[in-house]
Amino acid sequence: MDSKNISTLVDDIRDVITKKGGWDSTVSEFFRGAVGDAMDRRFTKEEEERKPTLRMSNIGTPCKRKLWYYLNTELRTTDLPAGTLLKFAYGDLIEGLLLSLAKAAGHTVEGEQDEIVVDGIVGHRDAVIDGVTIDVKSASTPSFKKFEKNELRVDDPFGYIQQLTGYVYGGKDDPLVTDKKGGAFLVMDKTLGHIHLDYYDLTPELSLLPSRLVATKMMSTMKTEPYREWEPVPDGKSGNMKLPSACSYCDYKWNCWPGLRGFAYSNGPTYLTRVAKLPAVPEFKER
Fold first, then answer.
1. What is the set of domains in the chain, with CATH numbers?
2. Quick check: 139 and 66 in contact, CB under 8 A?
3. C-alpha span between 17 and 12 (Å, rounded)
4. pTM beyond 0.90
């Protein structure tokens, strides 16, 4: 069989899904191994007790204050509710499925979960497909649209571009990686089942990465938390001030904003930093 090119990856995966061939017992075994290993990492005591440290997965966190809290406070991922942790595991399942589909589609899938080290910071890339560093993501429909439109450079609340940059930089001497300047996100809309490959030429980010890592390391050792990246925004015309979207999803919002108050609206929670007019909905405490 001729070697496949990553430009046809998504179309080739769709062919496998529509039962046009490719999935066999070897791919099934690959899938079982990938998913089993991922669940071992998620649900074993070793994973639970891993100490917080700088990793490839968090160096791109846009809010350095959030990263500082993670590294320097007692709140850990083990404090997250079971539903949130299960969503993380669901993302692992999707990753295993997409990589298996890529393999079934005849593409070269290598380097899964290989350790990558850059300036002492460790990470594990998802895979190298057809010589390109790949980060697999599952996304909500609105987030998926950002990948479809190649918009992460202008709207990247989780720091995915910097994370991918770290994996590409760390693979610069890896013979599996033939594309040394770019990488891609293989993304699935977890609601609608759509798939997209979002490629980036990371030349600008790669040149800045060493200095960014130095600055991030210095920040992580500060005795007090860094400045806030975002400020409250008006909650309509009530005079109340609420957390912006990026802050409302943060695990450390109660630490970051003393006196924060949460209100359970029918369309989801709102977190107020200033209450000029008491909302006519139930209030809830930190949870």
1. 6-220 (3.90.320), 233-284 (no CATH)
2. no
3. 9
4. no
